[in-house]
Design brief:
121 residues, alpha+beta, binds copper (II) ion
Length: 121
């Protein structure tokens, strides 16, 4: 009986754990994404926590990635997220399988190497 009660208490927790999105932090700085390769699981909800640790503004531009994802919520505009210096932004979505290009579209930042890749498997 006690085991049954324990199971009854645990079941909702297990169901909830699968729905809770995984949190993935990505740091933006001059001129890098850290990590530069972001690995996600297809169909598994995620919160991308974008942190700009620099003084200047950067963006997280991945239009194909956002277009393919489901349930995108957060400050995404035209496939990119602007993050001012010292600020952060949270984007919740469910990613679709694929390999997507990531870059910062601010003037010359891509040329300076501010690029990355999002791999969803
Ligand atoms: Cu930048």
């Amino acid at each position: 009986m006690r085991a049954l009660l324990l199971l009854a208490c645990l079941l909702p927790t297990v169901a909830l754990a699968q729905d809770v999105p995984r949190r993935v932090e990505v740091r933006l700085s001059s001129f890098d994404f850290t990590p530069s390769t972001i690995r996600l699981t297809a169909g598994r909800p995620v919160v991308l926590h974008l942190v700009n640790s620099g003084d200047g503004g950067h963006n997280f531009a991945a239009p194909e990635f956002f277009a393919a994802a489901r349930g995108v919520s957060g400050p995404v505009e035209r496939g990119r997220v602007e993050v001012a210096g010292g600020q952060s932004a949270d984007i919740r979505l469910t990613p679709a399988r694929g390999t997507y290009r990531l870059r910062c579209t601010h003037t010359l930042h891509t040329a300076f190497g501010m690029t990355g890749e999002i791999v969803v498997e």
